[in-house]
Design brief:
Blueprint (H helix, E strand, L loop, with lengths): L5 H32 L3 H11 L11 H8 L3 H13 L3 E5 L7 E5 L1 H26 L5 H9 L5
Antiparallel strand pairs: 1-2
Helix pairs in contact: 1-5, 2-5, 3-4, 5-6
Amino acid sequence: MTATDPALTALAQGWCALSLLHGRIEAHIERALQSRHDLSVREYSLLDVLSRQHDGEGGHLQMKQVADAVVLSQSATTRLVTRLEDRGLLERYLCPTDRRGIYTNVTEAGLLLLEEARPTNDTALREALDEAARNPELAPLVRAVESLHVPA
């Protein structure tokens, strides 16, 4: 295949459209969360992921798993956890069975903020998708996103 191969060109255009859709959605949600709840998209995502932990088998996530879930490096995730901990939204404690492990839980204040922010996030997501659906290049991607049934 050459650089002018139609298959490569189509693939590159598809990737650009997907990147554009993601960027527009993230920017729209970011503005809504920042203005109404003083939360970034990453902070909201982190609170959401950590709020789903439980005390049962495999219920707590290791920092690498959290980093993967919020699509950040481990060091960036640690900095994000620290910022939210400083705001009283998260707390860390030693794993009771492995003193090398540290768990991170959402505090009551964090759960309350997450509960308040969830409708904002969901509304902003719907608005961003509706706006993108009016763009002929993005409409097929919006339909694909809307057809996904991914378990939480």
